[in-house]
Amino acid sequence: MEKIILRELTIEDEQAFFQGLKEWANEELSWYTFDWKPGVSFAELLTILENTKNGINLPINYVPGTMLYGFTDNQTIVGRVSIRHKLTDFLLKRGGHIGYSVAPRFRQKGYASEMMAQSILYCKKIGIEKLLITCASDNIPSWRIIEKNGGILENEIYDEVDKEMIKRYWIDLQ
Would you call 117 helix, strand, or coil by DSSP? Predict the structure, then answer.
């Protein structure tokens, strides 16, 4: 595994972002980006991401959040992490503070675990004291990554929306 740097996008990342987008051609777009859609310029995307981070112009029931991308040394994006700064009632059940994904060709190489470790440090830096991470109960790679990074299972609940069981993990950052 190459070294990963987890960070926010900058204007210099436009080419890397759109190259990374190709990695998700056969996947749901939200696994890579929530805010970019065809017709949105990269500069507009950066503004949206900055506004979301600062809680500006958020849709109803959204919370401030930071989108971080995992870059290799050669500036290839292998995945992304969405960090919600606060929890709503919905996020308390499904979603938690951290949502992450790794492009299919980079899976099972340790990138997700490293991105999770760096995400936890970021959450501590922004003042989150108790971190919630959730995943589908049948997503064995995901819950193994959460447990490897200190997640303590609180419970499993049924998600009525997606019709599946969800594992809920907490990490104390104090």
Answer: helix
d(CA 98, CA 126) in angstroms, rounded, equals 13
- CA–CA distance, 136 with 1 (Å, rounded to integer): 26
Quickly count helices (H) and strands (E) in the chain.
Answer: 5, 7
| 28-39 per-position pLDDT tens digit | 999 999 999 999
Which of the residues in the chain have pLDDT under 70?
none
Q: Which two tokens stand for residue 75?
A: 């500036």
pLDDT of residue 74: 87
Domains and CATH numbers, the chain: 5-172 (3.40.630.30)
CB 11 within 8 A of CB 47: no
d(CA 70, CA 143): 20
By C-alpha distance, which of 134, 44, 128, 141 is closest to 102?
A: 141
